[in-house]
Amino acid sequence: MDKYELRAIVLSGGLLSVFFFAVLYNSYSRKIDMPTCIPFDKTFEESKVKEIDKGLYEIYLVARMWTFDPEEIEIPAGSTVDFYLTSIDVVHGFHINEKGVNMMAVPGSINKITTRFEQPGIYRFVCNEFCGTGHQNMAGTIIVK
Amino acid sequence: MTISRPLKTTLLLGLTMPMSLFILGVYNGVMQTLYRAGVLQQHDVAGINYYQGLTMHGVINAIVLTTFFAVIFGHYTIVHYLRKEPPKWSYITSIVFMITGSVIALVVMVLGKASVLYTFYAPLQAAPLFYIGTAMLIIGSWIAFAGWVPLWFEWKRENPLSKMPIAILGTFVNFTMWFMASIPVIYELLALLTPWAMGIREKINVPETRTLFWMFGHPLVYFWILPAYIGYYTMLPKIAGGKLYSGNAARLAFLLFLILSTPVGVHHQFSEGGISPSIKLWVSILTFGVSLPSFMTAFTVGASLEYAGKKRGAKGVFQWMARLPWFRKDNYLFGYFICGLILFIFGGLSGIVNGSYTLNQLVHNTGWVPGHFHLTVAGPSILFILGLTLYMFNHVSGKPLKHRATATIIPYLWTIGVAMLAHGLMAGGLMGEPRRTNMGLTYTNPESHLFNSAWVPSSTMTMLGGIIMGTAALLYFVIFFRMAFSRPTTTPKIEMIESEELHIEKPIPLLLNMRPWIILAIILVASTYYPSFKEVFKYSKPVDNRFDMENPANLNRNNE
């Protein structure tokens, strides 16, 4: 093969490796998680907000056409939250843009992610997967005090 | 080469029918941008609901038009290079299946019985005929491929010393990959969704259907783009007045697509549970791998264009760019190629962001995603389809192409539109704007309590881009249908633009034989999807849900 062609291939491969290690480095150094697997269990289909320890919350979030349950959540600043998410009807999404939390709510399956709310404020979340004619109404807020 | 009557009819039908549907696809695309920007603050216009229109936009533009084009372009390429026509049974059965399937799906969508978007995620349910129609369209494309395979073996026997032409390799790679990747979706459509929608099957495992869909849904995007790659390698160098820089690089790029296209679909499922982070990391690596052939294409095609510019007397590092045949109406195809390439630089880079493991969570299901894929499918894929449809129709029908100046301008206008649309969607996406959402009713409606002023400028930019794209498409429809309705003036023929290679390269045996690559592809698919399905079945359970878009009540429970 042509030598410039080979150089281009090696350079592109190098560039991709740089991108990839940048992603890995940031994921691990800042402890950014991927949504994780939890075996399905009916208990997750009932919503709840539970303080399991000081500043440590478990929130079971249930998505359904066309609301989140709970729709408004209040937690103190500095809390770490484990979100457990499922849907009881069709596929929904759950996106808190400011926190980079972005998960699918899939019926028959549980999704989990952990995030920490340092700054007080109002964090809006929206459903970002099409779920029927009322999809554009499906949103909620997390109030961090 | 001259062409038999039935093949000619098949080709012309296969070009005209999806182009007519594309009118509806484009209309619904432009309308969406108006809803999203808050210019329209309502559920429907002219009896078409936002989500129904979105379904039509996706199904027509991304599945019907692209599949028809890949098949017709395949027939054209095969006949030109192998100098033989495929067996009549194959192309006739194929086109009958594809047209019937598309018409069925279209009718069901127009009736509003299938507003499930082109990803048809269960448990939103469409009428069974929608799933059957879509399956027929895909199976029709397999039948066309079945007709090409014997032609190739015959040609190889007659020309034992010749290499497989690059365009033929590209076509065969594309359809082999397509066949492998569409088996799961056919299984999903016919074995799971159709019986479920008919009520024969009560429960459905949603993560299973999603995984089957994306096993098809990502290779689908390569199926859209590979015809354009064939054009970039085998036609563009000649159109630009140069030669292909390296034939071996072209072959390697296609073969890399063959092995890496199918196992990367899980990257569409990064943000769902049911599949563990380790599989997601593995798929991220594969996704980075599949961008390598695109980087190679950028280099090889760039080098070929540089050669073309220098042949015209360009000097220095950059002058060749100015010496390319821009805006020349005797060479209208150049714009369709080069504009697609320019858009694809951004389309490819934004795609790497999507595939980047944790980074994906910043953009998943936001406007960023349609921003990205409009730079690919509405960039190189559609521009190639538009340009080559004019070119092939002109040759196969013998009808003259008038308004060449307009035909020359269209791709540039379209590109300005796509750039603005994609910029609006991606900027909005980074601010959290959700995709697939009738934002005019809430998020961009100042009267709603959900109003978000940050999303108004971005969605307005999207709308302006959409209107420019719509204008370019309108001009295109005028010149295409003007040609379609005129009288033939020349003899119908099949003739393709063929680039020469710049160097005589030493043949590399591994690049001339598809077999080891097919085996490697199967191994990679198995190594990704065996653990994925194992986890899907371990972590999730089937549900007896069944829903209509309009109604939050479970249809399964209504009957009780």
Automatic annotation (TrEMBL), chain A:
The chain crosses the membrane at residues 6-25. Residues 54-145 form the Cytochrome oxidase subunit II copper A binding domain. It comes from the Bacteria. Gene3D superfamilies: Cupredoxins - blue copper proteins. It holds the Pfam family COX2. This is Cytochrome c oxidase subunit II. It comes from Sphingobacterium chuzhouense. It is found in: Cell envelope. The keyword Membrane applies. Keywords: Copper, Membrane, Metal-binding, Transmembrane, Transmembrane helix. The lineage of its organism: Bacteria, Pseudomonadati, Bacteroidota, Sphingobacteriia, Sphingobacteriales. Its main location: other.
Automatic annotation (TrEMBL), chain B:
Keywords: Electron transport, Membrane, Respiratory chain, Transmembrane, Transmembrane helix, Transport. It holds the Pfam family COX1. Residues 13-481 form the Cytochrome oxidase subunit I profile domain. The chain crosses the membrane at residues 12-30, 59-79, 91-111, 131-153, 165-192, 212-232, 252-270, 282-305, 333-353, 373-393, 405-426, 463-485, 516-533. It comes from the Bacteria. InterPro entries: Cyt_c_oxase-like_su1_dom, Cyt_c_oxase-like_su1_sf, Cyt_C_Oxase_1. The keyword Electron transport applies. This is Cbb3-type cytochrome c oxidase subunit I. It comes from Sphingobacterium chuzhouense.
